[in-house]
Each structure stands twice: as C-alpha cells, then as structure tokens.
C-alpha cells in the first residue's frame, strides 16, 4: 500500500552569524521501500542578508539534489524531490537507499538570524531497492564535430537545474544560434543537468575537417559547416569565499568546501584525476569574490579575465592574471557570460567568447586545448600570436636574448594592438584599417641572459579611439570597455 510518511520536521531560527558557520546539518533515517523523498524548506529571503540553499545527501555522502533561491526578496518555498521514477530540477533520479541521509542547509548569505521551517516526507510502499548507480551520475561522451582547428564557445552558463531561468535545451539552442561550437552549462553544485546534455542529439556535418590559421577566416563567426555543438560536462563550485567552474568532468565533484577537512586542494585533485580543469570565476565580485587564499594557484588551470556582467571588475581580473603570470603560474585566461537567461539582451550568448585551438571538436579536444593555452578571448576581434615561433600557451627560447613577437589580428573596426612583457607595455601599434582581413604586426624585444631572467609575453586588441587622440597616445589608456581581444601568453627563456 502506498503511503506518505513524515521523516523530519523542523521549525527553528538561524543562529547568530559567525565567521566559520556555513552549514547546518539534519540527519534523517530513511526506511526501506521508499520510492520518493520530498524536502521542503521555507523562509523569508532578504537579498544578500538571508539566503539559504538546501542539499540532500545519501548515507554515503553521495549528492542527490539541491535547490537555490533565485529572484528578489520575500517568502520562499524551496523543494527537493528525488525518486526512482524521476527528480526535480537540480536533483538526480534513482533508487532511494535505506539508511541515515543528511539534509544540509547551506547558509549562502547569513548576516542575520531568521526563522525557517524544514520538512522531509517519504512516499513508501513501492520497491525502492538498494541503490544502484542512478542515471545521470556519469558523463557520456560524443563523437567529434570536427578536426583540428579553432572552436568558439561559452564556458559559463546556468539552467533551471540551479538558478538559471531557461532549460538546458534553450541554452543549447541559443549557443548554436550565436554560432558557437561549444557550450559549458555550469550549474551550481549539481551535475543534474548532464542527462539533459546527453539527451541532445546534434546533426553532424559531412565535412569534419577543422580549420588552421588561414581557415580561421571561416570560423564560427562566418559559418564553418559544423552542424553540431560540443557540450562540456561542467559544474560551478559555489563556496562562501569564491566560485570556480569545473570543466571536463566524468562524475560529480564534492564542491562543499566550506566545511573542515574538505578543501579546494581536494576538489582540484578530484577534477584533475578526471582529466578536467579548474577555473576561478569573477574574482572581484563582491560577496562572490575569490577569497580562498589557502588555495595554491598551481591547482588552478583557468581564470575568467573577461566576464560579460562584471564591468570594471574585469580590469582588476586582468591585473591579477598578470601578477600570476609574472610569478610563474601558468593560468590560462578565458571568458564567460555567466548567462542565466539567453533571451535577455544583457546576457545573450556570443557577446564575449572563448576561442580555443583544439585537435578535434570534442569535449576532450576542447578541454585539452584549454589546458595547452592556444586560447584567446573574443569581444569583436580575433587574435593569434607566436613568440620566436612558439604559439600561445607555449615556451620559446630566445637565442642571444632576441625576441620576436608576431601578432595576427582581424577586426571589423579600427583597432590597436598592445604587446606586453610581464604585464607591462613594450609597444602599442595601430593596425591598418582592413575590415575582416587578417594582418600581422611584429614587435622585437631583447632579454638579458641568465637562468632566472625569462619573460612572459602576451597581446591585447583594443578599439582605436582615433589617430588624433593625444590623451590616448600619451597614456596608452585601455580598459575593459575598449577590449576587443586578449591572447594568452608565451613564456620565453634565454638561450644559455
């Protein structure tokens, strides 16, 4: 006989805020034969003051679901539903094993005490059985959509499985409409969106060849014959002291690092064991800024240097990136829109793009390409660079200390190329006004000899304010609003 049983009922008030109080935990005993669990959390949201998430964990700590609280202030009724026959957004369907489960309340914003209620009900009487691996916990790989070449994509977006407003299918549709070749849906905490990615069946092009530098003229912006799209298995670590995207995963990663004994080092080790990448997001974004200062930068692979919604914070992010590069950390700069609704003009996909040179158009190809670092950020211009023949992300040797930086650039408006060494400008060169055509700019430099006197070179493309602007040419003023492209570095070491 089917029945509904209350397993947990709590009516309480949040404790007073404390520096290291991040989670509240409630155990509950789930009997055998349960077909479905339903958790309901109710409280009054006060934006950036009282914001609570709920998380449901199996007896062995395996994640089964979470729910967030997007939107403005007011009463919230948050629901987690998991069962053998389905699951709610952000949750994983599958058998409900008997044993002691845990409800974790994540105090995302906790600046005041506040009342809340929490209940968990079980639907019984059906054969829940002991847990086998629920569908959707393992990533599924696809056939490549192309060969060696450049791939344009989005590395930061959200669906209704966390705090996004549109389902995964809408994000995929918007990405293809924007001419993107790859898309990472990075829902907070969860991998529940992966089955939706895996259920998307793209049509593949007959022409599976990629595009070299010359063929880059026919890339995603101009139409390259690729009918499919590469979908990355990703998620966003959303801690109280910073956010980080995790890309190229094969299984869910425990991202709850605001508790003792589980750190970003543990997360990075798990991600890297899966062959994936760790990306620090919007490092200067108020309460969401990166403040996990105990995390070694050698554990980080990527950093957002161009975030569609961060405005002047992007200048600080590029400054941080330069400091990391000159300190010897090989962290690759990427872009992200952080899209929560692709139908909104301020969040529409394709406005800021990460462009990756990959061996093939597959998830593994894109992830490996990001790791190698022949990568640039596009905001209206294309860029490629070599230093003494070595590509972006590579290491060059400077015989006799001689350095030649070759920057290839293409734009539809007048632009200026900035060449930097160790974060400082060494040359500013206006490009010829040749809309849509590639052109090369060459800058020469000289390094002193010595084993510890290497350098890091990179280039940026900015909108040209006009040849007769004396303030610009006197100060070399540039910022996030003028940025049209940012290339990744080449490291150079003296020969002898």
Automatic annotation (TrEMBL):
UniProt GO MF annotations: 5'-3' DNA exonuclease activity; 5'-3' RNA exonuclease activity
Domain of life: Bacteria
Residues in Polymerase/histidinol phosphatase N-terminal domain copies: 153-241
Entries under SMART domains matching the protein: POLIIIAc
InterPro entries: PHP_domain, Pol/His_phosphatase_N, Pol/histidinol_Pase-like
Region (Disordered): 138-167, 200-225
SUPFAM superfamilies recorded: PHP domain-like
Residue stretches of biased makeup (Basic and acidic residues): 153-167
Coiled-coil parts of chain: none
Name of the protein: Polymerase/histidinol phosphatase N-terminal domain-containing protein
């Amino acid at each position: 006989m089917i029945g509904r049983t209350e397993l947990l009922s709590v009516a309480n008030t949040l404790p007073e805020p404390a520096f290291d109080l991040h989670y509240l935990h409630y155990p509950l005993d789930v009997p055998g034969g349960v077909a479905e669990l339903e958790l309901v959390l109710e409280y009054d949201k006060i934006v950036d003051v009282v914001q609570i998430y709920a998380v449901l964990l199996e007896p062995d700590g395996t994640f089964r679901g979470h729910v967030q609280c997007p939107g403005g202030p007011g009463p919230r009724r948050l629901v987690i539903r998991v069962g053998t026959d389905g699951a709610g957004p952000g949750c994983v369907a599958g058998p409900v094993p008997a044993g002691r489960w845990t409800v974790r309340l994540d105090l995302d914003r906790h600046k005041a005490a506040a009342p809340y209620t929490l209940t968990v009900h079980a639907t019984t009487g059906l054969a829940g059985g002991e847990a086998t691996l629920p569908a959707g916990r393992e990533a599924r790989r696809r056939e490549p959509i192309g060969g060696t070449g450049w791939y344009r994509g989005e590395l930061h977006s959200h669906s209704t499985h966390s705090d996004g407003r549109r389902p995964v299918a809408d994000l995929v549709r918007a990405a293809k409409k924007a001419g993107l070749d790859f898309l990472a849906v990075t829902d907070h905490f969860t991998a529940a969106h992966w089955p939706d990615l895996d259920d998307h069946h793209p049509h593949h092009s007959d022409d599976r060849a990629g595009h070299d530098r010359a063929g880059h003229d026919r890339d995603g912006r101009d139409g390259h014959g690729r009918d499919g799209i590469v979908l990355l298995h990703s998620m966003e670590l959303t801690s109280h002291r910073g956010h980080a995207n995790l890309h190229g995963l094969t299984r869910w990663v425990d991202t709850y690092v605001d508790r003792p004994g589980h750190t970003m080092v543990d997360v990075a080790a798990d991600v890297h064991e899966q062959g994936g990448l760790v990306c620090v997001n919007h490092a200067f974004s108020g309460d969401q800024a990166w403040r996990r200062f105990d995390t070694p930068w050698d554990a980080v692979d990527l950093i957002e240097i161009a975030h569609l919604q961060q405005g002047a914070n992007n200048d600080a992010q590029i400054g941080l990136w330069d400091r990391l590069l000159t300190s010897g950390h090989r962290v690759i700069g990427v872009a992200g829109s952080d899209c929560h609704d692709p139908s909104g003009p301020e969040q529409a996909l394709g406005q800021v793009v990460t462009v990756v040179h990959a061996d093939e158009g597959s998830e593994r190809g894109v992830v490996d390409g990001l790791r190698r670092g022949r990568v640039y950020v596009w905001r209206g211009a294309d860029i490629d660079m070599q230093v003494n023949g070595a590509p972006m992300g590579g290491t060059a040797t400077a015989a006799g200390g001689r350095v030649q930086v070759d920057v290839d650039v293409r734009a539809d408006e007048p632009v200026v190329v900035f060449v930097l060494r160790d974060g400082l400008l060494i040359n500013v060169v206006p490009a010829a006004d040749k809309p849509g055509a590639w052109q090369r700019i060459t800058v020469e430099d000289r390094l002193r000899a010595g084993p510890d006197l290497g350098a890091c070179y990179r280039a940026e493309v900015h909108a040209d304010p006009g040849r007769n602007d004396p303030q610009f040419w006197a100060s070399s003023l540039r910022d996030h609003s003028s940025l049209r492209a940012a290339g990744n570095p080449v490291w150079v070491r003296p020969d002898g």
